[in-house]
Amino acid sequence: GAVVSQHPSWVICKSGTSVKIECRSLDFQATTMFWYRQFPKQSLMLMATSNEGSKATYEQGVEKDKFLINHASLTLSTLTVTSAHPEDSSFYICSASYGTAIYEQYFGPGTRLTVT
Amino acid sequence: TQLLEQSPQFLSIQEGENLTVYCNSSSVFSSLQWYRQEPGEGPVLLVTVVTGGEVKKLKRLTFQFGDARKDSSLHITAAQPGDTGLYLCAGALYNQGGKLIFGQGTELSVKP
After folding, report:
1. Which of A40, A98, B33, B95 is deepest in the core (most CB within 10 A)?
2. Are A18 and A82 in contact (CB under 8 A)?
3. SS3 of residue B83 by DSSP
């Protein structure tokens, strides 16, 4: 149980274009979903927290107009990287939690974004 | 700034050796999670510790939560090449909506 999927698993896009990444909880309804960014050989950096039907809460230093997060249902959250630039190239990972143990996060497999 | 200091950051050992990874903070956590991540994949939850002083075992892995709930350790006995990966500790602060503070990670390499 507690399976989270992400789509796509990898994407290459041209500078200036936008890319949408989907995060789905497959066998549970997610109370909260989180979006992280990870650089090679480094730990996870939290970008934002989202709850279904409400606006995402962004961490300090994360541009909300560049990284658009939509949490339309209890099983789906999307991250759109707008006007992507090469420095946005990274590994993006989502996670989801549910029930009373909201501190237990279940992670998706990640999306490798490369901006050329 | 809430920090979770994880050490060592890199560890290369031979198969059969034991090792311990530490996570320390000045903050008190409501719970602490340990994850393992392989290259190109998302982290996988190994264990959650909630009670101060708690010890949990998962086969050859032993997890301990400090009495004051500010620190934790992961001990692996007789490491195997399959244990190779990035180990991450993550602490949950009170009243933060489930947000986790991650340690820097420990890159473990177990050579046969």
Report:
1. B33
2. yes
3. helix
List the helix and strand counts (H, then E) for chain B. 0, 11
**Residue range A52-79: average pLDDT?**
91
Low pLDDT (below 70) residues in chain B: 1-2
pLDDT number for residue A110: 96
Tokens (6 digits) for A1: 């149980």
Chain B residues within 8 Å of chain A (Cβ atoms): 6, 30-31, 33, 35, 40-45, 48, 88, 90, 92, 97-100, 102-105, 107
Looking at residue A9, its amino acid is: S
Cβ within 8 Å of residue B39, ≥6 positions away: none
Question: What pLDDT score does A40 carry?
Answer: 85
